[in-house]
Amino acid sequence: MSDHAFATRAIHAGQAPDPTTGAIIPPIYQSSTHVQDGIGGLRGGYEYNRSGNPTRSSLETQLAALEGGEGALSFASGLAAEDALLRGILTPGDHVLLGNDVYGGTYRLLTRVLSTWGIETTTVELSDVDALRAAIRPETKIVWLETPSNPLLKVVDIALTAEIAHAAGAIVVVDNTFASPALQQPLSLGADLVVHSTTKYLGGHSDVLGGAVVFGDDRFFEQVKFQQFAVGAVSAPLDAWLTTRGIKTLALRMRQHSENAQAIAEWAQQRPEIAQVFYPGLASHAGHDIAARQMSGFGGMLSLGLAAGADAARSFAESTSLFQLAESLGGVESLIGYPPDMTHASVRGTELAVPENIVRLSVGIEDVSDLIADLEDGLGRIGR
Ligand SMILES: *Cc1c(COP(=O)(O)O)cnc(C)c1O
């Protein structure tokens, strides 16, 4: 598959028809165990669902092909994937350097769960190369970044970060959830590992929770696979299948998400009620040039800073109708959220706290004129 283009890989990698019936869609292997031909005589290596399941394998092949990786593992959630990755690679005394705007759940996992197992975590502004160099320590095992970030859509130069981290003996993990592999390929830019919440754009239809680790080479695969097997946070067969189905339209969806978000960002810039528009597709965005270089589209996420402050932002988030008020992102339907009280409530009062006057939009693939009309209605209802 590696000689085919992205959209082709997304549809065909790991998706060979069922050999016994010719069913064009590989079946959902809703089975917890596999019959052995004599003790240890496994068919296709399958034994018990926690160690492997053919539907999960099909998704893992597809995920590796999407990111240009050597292998992938599919988990029950994005955080389960992160947890297995971190425990598979780190040992007590290791240090993790996080971008200062990574997903709040990643920060919580490291500072409140893994800290008790002897892992130290600090954060840094990754767009500041001097700060990055100064923050890396001899014990730094992982530099963890997210670009574009959540909710301020900050952009980090993946290739430059990888160069600096590697020179200091650390590996680089990129959380590629926001861009998706349709728009950004971190392994080709020098990252060692990619993680995903497949709950978001990869699944794409807000109907499944899942996560993945994709490996640039075979250095860490066995360690993380062992964690997955020993701890058990695997994706269930139906969830894996739904994710596979979502991925087949990823390239198309990401094009439309990006086009709609760009139109909304340009509309928002003209509105007096909106003081800041955070979207890397705007030439005025601080990370625009890097994003244009390392992404093939700017994605469907954007945040808006309301000129009238926090109360106006809260009211706006409750005043739209096509944009539904909910956590999460990346589905075909548009969502609006108030990060300080919703997605980022767990980092309030920490160094990862976000401005109080913003709303975050996950722009769906509805007709963009309906979306803009909905936002205009919402602005008109602020404070009512
Ligand atoms: C949602 C999300 C996660 C966590 O994934 P879950 O599937 O919710 O466990 C991690 N990183 C980013 C960027 C996310 O948006």
TrEMBL record:
GO terms for molecular function: cystathionine gamma-synthase activity. It holds the Pfam family Cys_Met_Meta_PP. InterPro entries: Cys/Met-Metab_PyrdxlP-dep_enz, Cys_met_metab_PP, PyrdxlP-dep_Trfase, PyrdxlP-dep_Trfase_major, PyrdxlP-dep_Trfase_small. The keyword Transferase applies. It comes from the Bacteria. Coiled coil: none annotated. Belongs to the trans-sulfuration enzymes family. This is Cystathionine gamma-synthase. It comes from Microbacterium algeriense.
